[in-house]
TrEMBL record:
<dbReference type="GO" id="GO:0016791">
    <property type="term" value="F:phosphatase activity"/>
</dbReference>
<dbReference type="GO" id="GO:0000287">
    <property type="term" value="F:magnesium ion binding"/>
</dbReference>
<dbReference type="InterPro" id="IPR036412">
    <property type="entry name" value="HAD-like_sf"/>
</dbReference>
<dbReference type="Pfam" id="PF08282">
    <property type="entry name" value="Hydrolase_3"/>
</dbReference>
<protein>
    <submittedName>
        <fullName>Uncharacterized protein</fullName>
    </submittedName>
</protein>
<dbReference type="InterPro" id="IPR023214">
    <property type="entry name" value="HAD_sf"/>
</dbReference>
<dbReference type="InterPro" id="IPR000150">
    <property type="entry name" value="Cof"/>
</dbReference>
<dbReference type="GO" id="GO:0005829">
    <property type="term" value="C:cytosol"/>
</dbReference>
<dbReference type="InterPro" id="IPR006379">
    <property type="entry name" value="HAD-SF_hydro_IIB"/>
</dbReference>
Length: 274
């Protein structure tokens, strides 16, 4: 195995435990990576503003791949190094389709998510845990109508996140969306779908950043648990699935580590990097 120079890790279900906390063991493991000169890269479906302060302040964390590869950001300068977004027109079309179902559909623009007043007022209706509700409050601005907001902003949309009031609607909405061209459809949780431009994937984002930093693909390691992590697990030199990962993810992984509640990120770093 080539010496690892980039460790890319998902947040929810991977680095963070079920209560959305990061353990001291995981912090120590990532700090050791930084001491060895390894780039430590949060790679998440969250927007830039959704990367927790404690993770931003970890040694070695300078770059983040956000919104499933919709953006790559220099956290030190705030500069967006790369963006791969849905056009405003395409995003409006997709949001209009979601309105056929009882869902909370939130567009992510410029590193921040927006949601509608009616959704923010009833987060429990969409099956969100207390920890998830806290995260939503911290990472979203509230508007009356997301479709009009996107239309009037005229800006590219990094991602659209969809939460379901009735999980039975997930399959038919996914089937409907799969008829649309130019988009990537993934999921990070059992009750969500995530829509990106077809070229905005965590894997593509990781390869772009590796090239930007002059790092060979074989010197990258990616750790994740959800469908939106498959691309980077397949493309990294070493792909690692959490033990709590979907079987779909595990089948592409080179390594399986412990669960996110058992410090699985630290465990694989300790074993493969030291």
């Amino acid at each position: 195995m080539k010496a690892i120079q980039i460790v890319a890790f998902d947040l929810d279900g991977t680095l963070l435990d079920s209560d959305k906390n990061i353990s001291e063991r995981n912090i120590r493991a990532l700090a050791r990576c930084a001491e060895k000169g390894i780039y430590v890269v949060p790679t998440t479906g969250r927007p830039t503003d959704g990367v927790p302060k404690r993770i931003r302040e970890l040694p070695g964390v300078r770059y983040a791949i956000t919104t499933n590869g919709g953006a790559i950001v220099d956290l030190e300068t705030g500069e967006q190094l790369m963006a791969c977004t849905l056009s405003p027109q395409k995003a409006v079309e997709l949001l209009e389709i979601t309105r056929e179902f009882d869902v909370m559909a939130d567009p992510y623009i410029g590193g921040r998510a927006v949601t509608e007043e009616r959704c923010m007022a009833q987060l429990h209706h969409y099956g969100l845990s207390e920890a998830m509700q806290t995260m939503v409050h911290d990472t979203r601005d509230v508007v009356r109508d997301v479709v009009e907001y996107v239309r009037q902003s005229g800006k590219g949309v990094e991602k659209i996140n969809i939460f379901f009031a009735d999980i039975a609607d997930r399959a038919p909405l996914r089937c409907r969306l799969e008829q649309e061209s130019g988009i990537a459809i993934t999921a990070a949780m059992v009750n969500n779908l995530e829509l990106n431009d077809e070229n905005a994937t965590k894997g593509n984002g990781l390869m772009w950043l590796a090239d930007y930093l002059g790092v060979d693909r074989e010197a990258t390691m990616a750790v994740g648990d959800g469908e939106n992590d498959v691309s980077m697990i397949r493309m990294a030199g070493v792909g690692v699935a959490m033990d709590n990962a979907l079987d779909l993810v595990k089948q592409y992984a080179d390594e399986i580590t412990l669960t996110n509640d058992e410090d699985g990120v630290a465990a694989v770093i300790e074993r493969l990097i030291g």
